[in-house]
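Example (one chain per record):
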Amino acid sequence: MIQYEQLHHVGLNVTDIDRSKEFYGDILGLTELARPPFDFEGAWYAVGNQQIHLLVLPESQTIRRDPSLSSREGHVALRVKSYQDTLKWLKKHNVNVLEKPTSASGFAQLFVADPDGNLIELHVERSS
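Predicted structure:
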């Protein structure tokens, strides 16, 4: 039997590292980490004790071409401290947001997409 300790990182394919760094660093406010000298472009970001690894691969089959937001497609979920503060920040930066403040999941959810269509859920525990 496999015994897990934690989720370490999620790898996401992107096409333009500068554009992606602006989104993950400047808009989502994640802290960039040192990255080994791989033979391809990318960036690593801290999310608490876990990480998001961006991997530049323009021909990736996982890049979404449809810019619409959906809560049912594959996504990465990040817990945030404040639904309203996060929503205000995203709107201030002209990020398209799918708002689900009363989701059946029990979380108040915001869904956004990075410049390559990778879906990111930002959520807080909803008060009962």
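Caption: The chain has one domain: 9-125.
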